[in-house]
Write a structure and sequence with these properties.
The protein is 34% helix and 23% strand. The chain has 324 residues and is of the alpha/beta class. The protein has two domains: 156 residues, no CATH class; 148 residues, Rossmann fold (3-Layer(aba) Sandwich), CATH 3.40.50. The protein is elongated.
Length: 324
């Protein structure tokens, strides 16, 4: 799920309320170089307007043309594109890519309202569509779940599957948080210092005044969680890092120069952390983009987190200080 899918659902609901017929189209399966992943969503209105994307252009044009010429499915149906090389070229699916879609009429928007309301509360929910009956069910989902189709039921996830814990409520954190929200992370900021926590006002985020190590233990960082320490206070940053580096978090980073990072690693080595665990620390945090302002530094931090999340090799980094 990404934020675009929620926009698609919101627009589809509005169109239905305005009296239009609306169809939802979901990417079911892809082969080859299809440009959109399973679960990607598009809404199509009876007079042609669309929101969202399932291919990037040509497939959308064909879907619009079908609706305008009266091909309006009354029940969930499967649609395939790019079965032959000629079709793949026609519909902009390179290298023989193939796209399989589910097209369904939107009859009732109640389930959309439920998903939007629950996502606004930062819940992760699953929508299950029974292709035979058209029945829709909305229920809680687990963070590690993925889009699924068993031949009859399609299960799509909505909500923040990824989570970012920010230690420190300073100026940089106030820029990091909204960017992370835009990237569909659930964001939790922690800062026990009263002079900072009383002014935290970033909409859409959660805030904790706990000690950082207590918070990390409580939220139980998993493989879909990242933590970045930004307080500049070793007493707070190191407490969070000691717990986070022992967790399953996919990313753990801390703000600081290369010299400060080297000293931090020396401090962490005094506690019950193995060299492998300490080696998981990303520091200096962020890609080397030459950033100087809080916004530029925030972009570099989120760029690195996204790269690690997507298992992309990080090459735009400053070299570590040599030993000695």
């Amino acid at each position: 799920m990404d934020s675009l899918d929620l926009q698609v659902l919101s627009q589809a609901r509005d169109w239905l309320a305005q009296g239009h017929a609306v169809w939802l189209v979901t990417v079911l399966e892809t082969w080859g170089s299809a440009p959109r992943p399973p679960g990607a969503l598009l809404a199509l209105r009876d007079d042609g307007p669309v929101v969202g994307s399932v291919s990037g252009g040509c497939v959308e044009d064909d879907l619009i043309d079908r609706v305008r010429h009266g091909e309006r499915v009354a029940a969930p149906a499967l649609v395939s594109y790019g079965v032959t090389r000629e079709e793949a070229a026609r519909f902009g699916l390179p290298c023989g890519g193939t796209l399989r879609l589910v097209q369904e009429p939107l009859r009732n928007a109640g389930w959309i309202t439920e998903i939007l309301e629950r996502c606004a509360r930062h819940e992760l929910v699953a929508r299950t569509l029974d292709l035979a009956s058209g029945a829709v069910a909305v229920e809680p989902a687990a963070r590690g779940e993925r889009f699924a189709f068993d031949g009859r039921r399609m299960r799509t996830l909505f909500g923040p599957r990824w989570r970012l814990v920010i230690i420190g409520a300073g100026q940089l954190s106030r820029v990091v948080a909204p960017i992370a929200l835009a990237l569909d992370f659930e964001v939790l900021c922690c800062d026990p210092r009263e002079e900072y926590n009383v002014t935290w006002d970033v909409p859409g985020t959660a805030f904790s005044r706990e000690m950082p190590d207590d918070l990390v233990q409580r939220v139980q960082l998993d493989a879909h969680s990242a933590l970045v320490a930004l307080t500049h206070d070793p007493k707070l940053d190191d407490l969070a890092l000691m717990e986070a580096l022992k967790s399953a978090a996919f990313y753990v980073g801390a703000l600081g120069s290369r010299a400060n990072t080297a000293r931090r690693k020396e401090r962490l080595a005094l506690f019950d952390l193995s060299p492998e665990e300490i080696g998981r620390l990303h520091g200096p945090v962020g890609l080397d983009l030459g950033g100087r302002t809080p916004a530029e530094i925030a972009v570099s931090i989120l760029a690195e987190i996204v790269a690690v999340k997507n298992a992309v090799a990080i090459v735009q980094k400053k070299p570590a200080l040599s030993a000695g």
